[in-house]
């Protein structure tokens, strides 16, 4: 049976929209350059020494990964930062055993700022170069 509101002039009654589940947090990737020697504990608890040419720091839901080229395996690998037991900075020789994530985040942020400043200076130099008057040839 049709009600008097079921006609072409009125839209049909629609159930109120239910709030959707919030989308899962996406991964965030921070560029990170550097060479590190690390002591890593795998999922089974075995420790190993690794040499890594770092490329990025990936921040995701529930974990953070240090990604780069693993010299031992000859390819790209991601290492969970919470399983890195010791990190040695190849540039400075500094040995880090606590606060590894904080140190890596600080380094990534410092590199980001340096890159932004470099880009800003390059843009300023280009603007100055194009603003100079062109001299006529005689």
Describe the structure.
- It is a single chain.
- This protein is α+β, with helices and mostly antiparallel strands and 138 residues long.
- It has one domain (28-129).
- The chain has one helix at residues 100-131; strands at 28-41, 47-60, 63-70, 75-80, 84-89, 95-96.
- A 6-stranded antiparallel β-sheet has the order 4-3-2-1-5-6.
- The longest helix has 32 residues, at 100-131.
- The protein is flat.
- The model has no long low-confidence stretch (mean pLDDT 85).
Q: How many separate helices?
A: 1
Question: Overall mean pLDDT score?
Answer: 85
Computed over alpha carbons, the radius of gyration is 27 Å
Biggest sheet statistics? 6 strands, antiparallel
Question: Number of folding domains?
Answer: 1
Low-confidence stretches: none
Strand content: 35-45%
One letter per element, helices H and strands E, the order comes to EEEEEEH
Compute the separation of the termini in Å.
95 Å
Record the strand order, biggest sheet. 4-3-2-1-5-6
DSSP E strands, number = 6
Give the class from helix and strand content and strand pairing.
alpha+beta
Helicity level: 10-25%
- Approximate shape: flat
What features would you highlight for this structure?
1 helix, 36% strand, 6 strands, 138 residues, alpha+beta, 6-stranded antiparallel β-sheet
